[in-house]
Design goal:
Beta-Lactamase, Arc Repressor Mutant, subunit A, two-stranded antiparallel sheet, 7 strands, elongated
Length: 229
């Protein structure tokens, strides 16, 4: 990393960028030309890099490729950077698209604050991102509700030949499949679910098809009618 260049880029409050890299949050600096300038170890681990110095020069698209092609999510990050530069002011408390880290084997949910960084002449040269990982509290609450719903159903409404009393069929679904089923049961279309979860419509359709198969239903209407009967 060109340390002198990175350190010369400072917010208007003259924050020491190098010291921020040691914060417990996810910290990253992206240039106005969409090139990685610096990040801390947490960001490097999430992306799947060997160390934080491998972040240097990476575009958001390159990061998405490393993380398995999550281009839609990273496109949102770039749009946020452009908004900060256009408005010349911070973008605070932005809820980010969900990221799945193959390296860490987990989903990440972030609230990010972005700040413009200026050169010595007052021109914006980069953005500083400080991302706070948020717990699954809201999603967990939703999943608890749908699990309670399924537990309350008569055992013969879900795969009668294999159903057993007190057995929760939702346990056979992945967390993503559970989320999709819950939102569908609340009356949302698959397109709306995709928007809520910040996933592509095709990905949501795949999750829902998998859930139907595991729960023993062939169509969306059949699943909804039986589960809400």
């Amino acid at each position: 990393m060109n340390k002198s260049k990175t350190c010369s880029l400072t917010p208007r409050f003259h924050i020491d960028i190098e010291s921020l890299l040691f914060l417990p949050m996810n910290v990253f600096v992206q240039s106005k030309d969409n090139e990685g300038l610096a990040c801390n170890d947490q960001v490097a681990e999430m992306i799947g890099l060997k160390n934080r110095h491998d972040f240097e020069g990476l575009s958001y698209r390159a990061m998405a490729k490393i993380m398995g092609g999550q281009y839609q999510q990273y496109r949102s990050f770039r749009q946020d950077d452009l908004l900060v530069m256009k408005n010349n002011k911070p973008l605070l408390n932005k809820s980010e698209p969900t990221l799945y880290s193959e390296a860490m084997k987990k989903d990440y949910y972030f609230i990010t604050n972005r700040f413009p960084l200026y050169d010595q002449n007052g021109h914006i040269e980069a953005t500083l991102g400080i991302a706070f990982e948020v717990p699954y509290s809201k999603i967990d609450q939703s999943l608890t509700q749908v699990k309670a719903l399924l537990n309350a159903l008569p055992s013969n409404t879900l795969n009668p030949e294999k159903a057993k009393p007190r057995k929760n069929p939702l346990n056979n679904l992945t967390q993503r499949e559970q989320q999709v089923v819950y939102l569908v049961l609340k009356g949302k279309t698959l397109k709306a679910v995709a928007k809520d979860l910040r996933l592509s419509p095709r990905t949501v359709e795949t999750y829902f098809d998998n859930a139907k198969q595991k729960l023993g239903y062939k169509t969306k209407s059949e699943l909804i009618q039986q589960l809400l009967a």
